[in-house]
Amino acid sequence: MSKIVIVGTLDTKGAEFKYVKDIIEGEGLETIVIDAGVLGEAYFEPDISRSEVADAGGQSIEELVEAKDRGESMEVMSDGAAKIVEKLYSEGKIAGIISLGGSAGTTIGTTAMKTLPVGIPKVMVSTLASGDTRPYVGTKDITMMYSVVDILGVNSLSSEILSNAAFAVAGMVKGKKPEPKEKRPLIAATMFGVTTPCVEKAREYLEEHGYEVLVFHATGTGGKAMENLVEEGFISGVLDITTTELCDELVGGVLSAGPDRLEAAGKEGVPQVVSTGALDMVNFGPLDTVPKEFENRNLYKHNPTVTLMRTTVAENKKLAEIISEKLNKAESKTTLFLPLKGVSMIDAEGQAFYGAEEDKMLFETLRKNIDQDKVELIEKDLHINDEEYALALAKKMIELIEG
Prior knowledge:
Elements: E1 3-8, H1 14-26, E2 31-35, H2 50-57, H3 61-67, H4 70-90, E3 94-101, H5 103-113, E4 122-126, H6 134-137, E5 143-146, H7 158-174, E6 186-191, H8 196-208, E7 212-217, H9 221-231, E8 237-240, H10 245-251, H11 264-268, E9 272-274, E10 281-284, E11 299-303, E12 306-310, H12 313-328, E13 334-339, H13 356-369, E14 375-380, H14 387-402
Parallel strand pairs: 1-2, 1-3, 3-4, 4-5, 6-7, 6-8, 8-9, 9-13, 13-14
Antiparallel strand pairs: 10-12, 11-12
Helix pairs in contact: 1-7, 2-4, 4-5, 8-14, 10-12, 12-13
């Protein structure tokens, strides 16, 4: 029978973990407690000791205690807990996971959670859950619950938080999952608000033809999540319509997906249809957060919390070179589509980011640099959101998958 894993520092937060353990077991579920503490002895007997965790992380617990290096200890125990959780899952022993903590406990707990696939319940009660959780959640479905008070003792307030978290993970594990639909090949697609009509039309066509489409918002994390699923073997084809995250990586916007974006499908041999969606924009927060160096650029207030900046001719040249280099290395069937009448909803005649010269540089540089012996290049005298363009992308995706 699969169990709920509890990962935590039983030396400093043992009473809190015991409280959570008792609630979960009171719901008729079994637990596996992993002790990731270093400072002292466990408050109660774990199923997997701190010595085992340290050994899995590459050092002995005695070495960590003697070194008194908090940073090194946290790294070793994070790695060790992650390896143990990964092994337990491979043995079919994990139905869910929960952890509690401050900065160190949150790092240890979420590092272990990230080894588990999407769909396995993951609950992290954290003092950091009200801030920027991206370093902890990453691209996984980790539920973070703000602890409100520090996790130090079980009191009238913390008991409410901890019991809610315990019941939450227990409910996720015990809950009746919906019957799976007929399994269909998965296609990953990327979308932004300014490319929504294109993605929606392509999705409708693909689903009418027997595919299931997972749409990822190109917000940095969205692109990373998509490419992680590609690497994990879930995806049959990638419809990468919206490659805008490359702009943020190049120029310094807030929605970068990192330097490896647009590489996973090519490396994994997954067919991909790529376009230039929203390469006209770099993303920032509210207008007053845009760096001073960009204050004289073409800025567009998308909403109170998002400011867009038009990419320049020089930036479009560089973006085209980056795309060409990545696609030319692809070991998968790859087609690049160019929408010659605009790459986003606001890159059209009369719109805020209409840029004939910028787009011309983008397309000319792609024509020059794409190795057409490896990458099929298709140009359409259409706007990216034209229905005809969207259908062409969808039909090509099916052609590449079905051969």
